[in-house]
Specification:
By secondary structure, the chain is an alpha+beta fold. 44% of the residues lie in helices and 24% in strands. The structure holds ligand C2E and calcium ion (2 copies).
Length: 529
């Protein structure tokens, strides 16, 4: 299979995976959202029905409250008042007079020739009022043949099914129950009969039972509860278009993300290929800059660190942190290190021959540490350039390996060959104070995370002082990195011990020509005898 096809297959796979994942996430999110929306609708509906039921109960109560008990029951005046109240009320269909479980007269029927036996109430409420449901009695002539009667004292109030108005909604059912929490009984006064027990009715919350969602709400003022319900299957049926929309949106988002990731991976792959080609062809897109390292007290330039720069095909400058780690991951960092060794010993050969106290620092990656071919190359180039190995400082960092044994062995081997060894980015990797006495290094390069704290009250601010003291007591040289301000320089210069520093306060990394000029300017003229 050609590389082109392989690269495109990877892009296709990642994009497909992204869209599948996106669809699944979109579906799931849609599912959760719609379920939440359905629950909330059910709850709103239950509260609406409850408000209506409360209004009805208020109306019944007001009938009982207004009823003048001083009148002789079933007298003409009594009947007249009952009729006025019945006509005034939208929901009360009839009002009657009872005694000892018998109805004697009503607004609608007048005086009954024979008293009517009311039978057993469906529920006795906590205050003693009685509820008769599904009543098919003379009173029902006022409605459709069946109704609910509430009786308090000697007064009956009839509500029929139309009293409850039009509360129906598509897919959703409701049930209104009168309850007695003491006797733990209830009776249905409106709506459809739902297969739920007293516990669910009184619960006042949402629950899913056997494929249906239920929501119960109980009145704060009356012994009435409402339960609403919807089949979960109906929720999905009615919201299918939304569900499909969510899945499609998720799929599209996943597809886009997958595409971005795939293209990013491809770009990274192609970037590391570009870099490898640039290194192998000694391309001008690669250059080495040198950042001066100075004696912080005298300001004399004692050395320079080689720092690689690279611009890709589009001319964009790629940050070294990025392309170095890319080369480390792809496995050709040793080619980068070789490139820098060749370029730097050639660039600075003359300077190093002229000034034996001048040190060239070269960064060594973790995987370079045990690479003998690399050190052969270094030896050959150092010899060819006519410089002394002690003028080369190899900067070791241990960001990618925790193997202290490996670091220690590499240090021993390099020191034996006459090179200086500096621990780079000191303080942030393995290179903590507790290890430094075990490592036979010439210097530590304190990371700029610590120089940044000079003059601030950062938590780690005191650590820099401790590092300097410790290094001093162990006889290890110190280079402080990232010195950017005069405050930082003055602090270091005031320490009283010889210290080296590197940073923008002194100089940015320079081309070889600019470095020569810089050295000429910062080296004090030799005194004539
Ligand atoms: P490093 O070895 O710690 O190099 C010092 C970095 O700090 C350089 O960044 C330098 O430009 C920057 N720097 C110097 N003075 C200051 C300052 O005052 N303030 C701030 N904020 N930064 C300062 P650069 O060149 O971007 O390099 C980043 C890292 O890339 C280096 O960190 C090193 O780990 C790696 N690197 C660069 N060139 C090479 C190389 O040739 N080989 C290897 N293996 N790694 C390299
Ligand atoms: Ca370094
Ligand atoms: Ca460093």
């Amino acid at each position: 299979m050609s590389k082109w096809i392989r690269a495109h297959t990877v892009v296709c796979y990642i994009t497909l995976l992204g869209s599948l994942l996106g669809t699944a996430i979109g579906f799931w999110l849609g599912h959760v959202m719609l379920l939440h929306a359905a629950k909330s609708n059910l709850s709103t509906y239950a509260q609406e029905v409850m408000r209506n039921a409360d209004d009805i109960a208020d109306e019944i109560n007001s009938v009982f409250a207004q009823y003048p008990h001083i009148l002789a029951p079933c007298s003409n005046q009594d009947l007249a008042i009952m009729q006025v109240q019945t006509f005034r009320s939208r929901r009360v269909k009839d009002i009657g007079r009872t005694h000892d479980g018998k109805l004697y007269c009503s607004a609608f029927l007048g005086r009954l020739p024979q008293p009517f036996e009311e039978g057993t109430p469906s529920l006795v409420l906590m205050g003693g009022a009685k509820v008769y449901t599904n009543v098919r009695v003379a009173l029902a002539a006022a409605g459709d043949g069946r109704g609910t009667v509430v009786e308090a004292g000697d007064v009956d109030v009839l509500l029929n099914s139309t009293s409850f108005g039009n509360w129906e909604r598509p897919h959703v059912n409701y049930m209104v129950e009168a309850t007695n929490r003491e006797t733990r009984q209830m009776t249905q006064i409106a709506g459809s009969t739902l297969p739920v027990g007293l516990q669910t009715v009184l619960s006042g919350r949402s629950q899913n039972i056997r494929g249906s969602m239920y929501r119960s709400v109980c009145s704060n003022t009356h012994p009435v509860c409402v339960v609403t319900t919807e089949l979960v299957a109906d929720v999905w049926r009615s919201t299918r278009p939304t569900q499909i929309g969510c899945s499609a949106m998720g799929g599209f988002a996943g597809l886009s993300l997958g595409l971005v990731i795939a293209l990013f991976l491809r770009r990274t792959r192609s970037l590391s290929r570009q870099l490898l080609i640039a290194v192998r062809s000694n391309s001008p897109s690669l250059s080495v800059l040198y950042q001066p390292i100075l004696d912080v007290r005298t300001g004399q330039c004692l050395g320079a660190e080689a720092l690689l720069r690279w611009t890709d095909q589009t001319g964009a400058s790629i940050p070294p942190d990025l392309f170095i780690s890319m080369a480390e991951e792809t496995g050709f960092i040793h080619e980068i290190t070789s490139f820098v060794i060749l370029r730097a010993t050639r660039d600075l050969g003359e300077l190093l021959r002229m000034r034996e106290d001048f040190t060239l620092s070269i960064n060594i990656a973790a995987s370079d540490m045990g690479d003998e071919r690399l050190f052969d190359l270094l030896r050959v180039n150092v010899t060819l350039a006519g410089i002394h190995p002690s003028q080369i400082a190899l900067e070791l960092t241990e960001r990618s390996t925790a193997d202290l044994g490996l670091v220690r062995a590499a240090i021993q081997s390099l020191r034996a060959k006459g090179y200086k060894v500096h621990i780079d980015d000191f303080g942030i990797g393995f290179s903590s104070l507790s290890y430094i006495d075990q490592l036979n290094v010439n210097a530590i390069k304190i990371d700029r995370a610590f120089s940044r704290t000079i003059g601030t009250d950062a938590m780690i601010a005191p650590i820099l002082g401790q590092m300097l003291e410790m290094a001093n007591s162990l006889g290890v040289d110190v280079v402080v990195e990232g010195v950017e301000t005069v405050t930082q320089r003055d602090y270091l210069a005031g320490k009283g011990t010889p210290l080296q520093a590197q940073g923008w306060y002194f100089s940015r990394p320079l081309s070889v020509d600019a470095l020569r000029l810089y050295i000429a300017q910062t080296t004090p003229p030799k005194l004539l005898n």
